[in-house]
Amino acid sequence: MHYQSIKLNEEFSKINDLWSPKLIGEMNNHQFKIVKIAGDFEWHVHEETDKLFFVLEGEMIIDFRDGQVKISKDEMYIVPKGVEIKPSAKKECHIMLMEPRSEA
Description:
Blueprint: H1 8-13, E1 22-27, E2 30-40, E3 44-45, E4 51-57, E5 59-64, E6 67-72, E7 76-79, E8 84-100
Antiparallel strand pairs: 1-2, 2-8, 3-8, 4-7, 4-8, 5-6, 5-8
């Protein structure tokens, strides 16, 4: 067995592209991904699963058709399945996502 912690700062330093999640671990059919974001992403919906956004650095906003939530460093938000969202960040933001392995 290989015992080694995952150093998030090192993993983020390997990411060059925005909005391109990188798999860093799996647990019980769930994947943990990290991603750098800035600017706006498109409106979209995850029909089959909830999605967790955990902000590690910076601040992001998730717009909904009827409101929005601001998520700052050390905060998380779980978007229920079937809810249309549009994530964005004014400045570069580092996020961890958790989702089922089957989610694209």
